[in-house]
C-alpha cells in the first residue's frame, strides 16, 4: 500500500504528461492545416479575379479591333466601285518604310490637302505620297471623291495616280514621282532656262495642249481645270509635261459648252476676264490660261504682278503689241539665243494670242489648238488674233490702274499658291 501510495502520483503525472504530448502535435497539425487551407483559397480567388479581368480586357480589345476593322472595311468598300480596274490599295507599313516614317528630309512641300513626301519602294520605284492633314478641310467623302475621279483620268500628260492607303486614321494618295519638279522652276530661273531649248519648249506646249484636250473632250468626264499655270505643270526625267493639281477642277458629266458660274478661285495672271470679273467659267476659261502659259514659255517671263508693275501692262498685252508691230522676235526668250525655227515659233506665238482673246467665242477649242500646233499652217491661213483683255471692269474699276491690278493679282496668287511638286486636291463635281 505504501509503495503504491508513493509510486502513484509520479505515475499519474507521467501518464498525463504523455497524453498532453500526444494531443499537442495533433492540435498544431490542425492549425497548420487550417492556415494553409485559407491561404490556398485566397490564391485561388486572386487567380480567378486576374483571369476574369484579363478576359474582360481581351473582350474589350477584340470588340475595339473588330469595330476598327469594320470601319476600315467600310472605307475600303466605299473606294471599290471606281472602274473595271480598281486602284491598288497600299498598306501603311510599306509607305512608312518608303518615306522613312515621313521624315523631314523626304518632305517635298505642303498644299491644301496636306504634306507631300518623296518615297522609294522596295523595288526602287520612286513615289510621291500625299498625306491627308488633320487640319485639312477635306474629309472621308472628299477623299473618296478624289480617288474615284482622279483614278479615271489616265493620260501621259497628266500626273499618274498609283494607289491609295486607307488604314487606321490615315488617308493617303500615292502618285508617280517627277524628279524635275515644276515648269516654273526652269522657265523663270535664269540659271536653268537655258536647259529649255526650242525643241523642249515646243514639246512642252504640245504635251500640255494634248493633256487639256483629254480633260475637255476625250476623258470619260469633261473636266475644267481652272488653275492651269506653270507651277501646276510638272516635268518628268525626259522633260515631258504632266498637268497636276486638280484642286480647283470642276467635273461635268453632261455635254455642252455652256458657261457656269461659281466662286472665283485660281491665279489672276492666268484667269480669263469673264471668270476673274464675273465668276463665269467654261472650257474656254482653260483655253485662256493655256494661251497665257504658251506666251510665258515663249518669253521666259511670268505674267504676274511684277511684270505689270515694271511695264505698266500685262505680258499678253505686250505680246499682242509686238506681234502687230512685226517685232515678235523681241518677245522671244533671250535664253533661246535666236536658235529656233521661225515658222514653228511664230505658229506657237499666233496660237497663244488666239487663246487669250477677250471674247470666249473667239478663242479656239483645245482640239483646234492641237491641230494648229501640229499643222504647217502659216499666219495667213490662221485667223488674226483680236486684242487681249485689259481687265477693266466694275469689279476693279472701269479704268483700273496698274497698281490696283497688281495688288489684285498679287493677293489672289498668294491666296491660291499651290505646292510646285506633286499636288493633288479634291475634284469638285457639279
TrEMBL record:
It catalyses: L-threonyl-[protein] + ATP = O-phospho-L-threonyl-[protein] + ADP + H(+); L-seryl-[protein] + ATP = O-phospho-L-seryl-[protein] + ADP + H(+). One of its GO terms (cellular component) is plasma membrane. Residues 102-391 form the Protein kinase domain. It is an enzyme of class 2 (transferase). GO terms for biological process: immune response; signal transduction. Keywords: ATP-binding, Disulfide bond, Glycoprotein, Kinase, Membrane, Nucleotide-binding, Serine/threonine-protein kinase, Signal, Transferase, Transmembrane, Transmembrane helix. GO terms for molecular function: ATP binding; protein serine/threonine kinase activity. CDD domains: STKc_IRAK (cd14066). The keyword Chaperone does not apply. Pfam families: PK_Tyr_Ser-Thr (PF07714). The chain crosses the membrane at residues 41-63. Its EC number is 2.7.11.1. The keyword Disulfide bond applies. This is non-specific serine/threonine protein kinase. The gene is LOC100283009.
